[in-house]
UniProtKB/TrEMBL annotation:
<dbReference type="Pfam" id="PF12802">
    <property type="entry name" value="MarR_2"/>
</dbReference>
<feature type="domain" description="HTH marR-type">
    <location>
        <begin position="1"/>
        <end position="148"/>
    </location>
</feature>
<protein>
    <submittedName>
        <fullName>Winged helix-turn-helix transcriptional regulator</fullName>
    </submittedName>
</protein>
<dbReference type="GO" id="GO:0003700">
    <property type="term" value="F:DNA-binding transcription factor activity"/>
</dbReference>
<dbReference type="GO" id="GO:0006950">
    <property type="term" value="P:response to stress"/>
</dbReference>
<dbReference type="InterPro" id="IPR039422">
    <property type="entry name" value="MarR/SlyA-like"/>
</dbReference>
<dbReference type="InterPro" id="IPR036390">
    <property type="entry name" value="WH_DNA-bd_sf"/>
</dbReference>
<dbReference type="InterPro" id="IPR036388">
    <property type="entry name" value="WH-like_DNA-bd_sf"/>
</dbReference>
<dbReference type="InterPro" id="IPR000835">
    <property type="entry name" value="HTH_MarR-typ"/>
</dbReference>
């Protein structure tokens, strides 16, 4: 059975997506660093700890990793770096000696509150400017379907 290769249009779209992802990630990193002193990884963690479903700004370390789709060691190293800067605090879990909690500090909350407006403006300018409501809806539908297939495969 032979391989069914991507069509020319699929190949163009796929390569465009890969380049877009790489360039957008680099731009996000540069802009966050320039406007707030935060890395993209810092910002990603702060977003999770300020999510609506995390009203107390606390998550278990493993929950944070699951939300970010990061390996345990990456989460631990990033939390340690942020803890050293006063953005987060780590505390042991009384119910599970191997587990720990990650708590958002006042400095961490202030950092994301300061960084978010410029970040949102950049996303609007770079990603959504010029896109119609229909294009945004189509992109949302496509990402939902791909994410559902990925989840089903796991």
């Amino acid at each position: 059975m032979g391989t069914t290769w991507l069509t020319e249009e699929q190949q163009r779209a796929w390569q465009g997506w890969l380049e877009l992802h790489a360039q957008l990630t680099a731009r996000i990193n540069r802009d966050l660093q320039a406007t707030s002193g935060l890395s993209h990884a810092d910002y990603a963690i702060l977003v999770q700890l300020t999510a609506e479903d995390v009203p107390d700004g606390t998550l278990r370390m493993f929950e944070l990793g699951e939300r970010l789709l990061w390996e345990k060691s990456r989460v631990s190293k990033q939390v340690s770096r942020m803890e050293a800067r006063g953005l987060l605090a780590r505390r042991d879990c009384a119910d599970d000696r191997r587990g720990s909690f990650v708590d958002l500090t006042a400095a961490g909350r202030a950092a994301i509150e300061s960084a978010a407006p410029a970040h949102v403006a950049m996303v609007r300018e770079v990603f959504f400017a010029g896109a119609s409501d229909e294009e945004v809806a189509a992109l949302g539908a496509l990402t939902d379907r791909v994410l559902a297939r990925l989840a089903a495969a796991d």
